[in-house]
Amino acid sequence: MRTIVIGDVHGCLEELEALLRACAVTASDQVVLVGDLVAKGPDSVGVIQFVRERGFEAVLGNHDAHLLRVRHPEPDRPVKGEHKKIAQHLSEADWAWLEARPLTLALAAHGVRVVHAGLVPGVAVEQQRREDLLNLRSITPEGLPSKRVDGGAPWASLWRGPEHIVFGHDAVRGLQHHPFATGLDSGCVYGRSLTALILPAHEQVSVRARQAYAPMR
């Protein structure tokens, strides 16, 4: 069985459909998304409904977690207006599906684990902090986790396995290829491309974004 792991969609439903066609996805394939299904792009609600109705799998991304705070408010963590607008149009089935998303997903047949942002090298998976799983980008020279691109070395360059990690979240660095980690955020919502990794062959397929929907910051 093939497993197709797809990078950050951010509401780009047309590009997601185009990528599935480019990968020639069939009913026998497993499809997994690396999170951040919503925000910044043109059709976040449509993406959630599409992915849910087709039985695809996904890990939770930081923007997905932000959206969940509309239903489950957290003190001192306000919800952005865009996420509130998306929340107004989600069905109960959409909410239930989103709330059930795991922080990581093991693809044992391929020796792969999917996570949205990253894992701190040297820390067991079950001991990773939720904040890092959703936001990690770098490891500082002092060995500390950082969500900043300029915060140090890419965490994935320091990951030594044994599982191969497939992740998203880091559009500024773009596609990343390391011995034990592959980054798939190729910046679709910023006008670049949407990328899939096809397992077990580790083949990458990309489709161009129709336009830039948001500025990269």
Give the structural class.
alpha/beta
Strand content: 15-25%
How much helicity do the residues have? 10-25%
Question: What is the CATH first-level class name?
Answer: Alpha Beta
What is the number of E strands?
A: 13
At CATH level 3, the topology is Purple Acid Phosphatase, chain A, domain 2
CATH architecture: 4-Layer Sandwich
- Let me know the largest β-sheet: 5 strands, mixed
Describe this structure in words.
There is one protein chain. It contains seven helices and 13 strands. 41% of the residues are buried. With 217 residues, the chain is of the alpha/beta class. The protein has one domain (3-208): 4-Layer Sandwich (Purple Acid Phosphatase, chain A, domain 2). It has helices spanning 13-22, 44-53, 62-68, 81-87, 92-99, 130-135, 155-158, and strands at 3-6, 30-33, 57-58, 104-107, 112-115, 138-139, 145-146, 153-154, 164-167, 176-178, 181-183, 193-199, 203-208. The radius of gyration is 16 Å and the shape is globular. It starts with a strand and ends in a 9-residue tail after the last strand. α3 crosses α4. A hairpin with a 2-residue loop joins β10 and β11 (181-183). The mean pLDDT is 97. The protein has a five-stranded mixed sheet with strand order 3-2-1-12-13. Strands 4-5-9-11-10 form a five-stranded mixed sheet, with no helix packed on it.
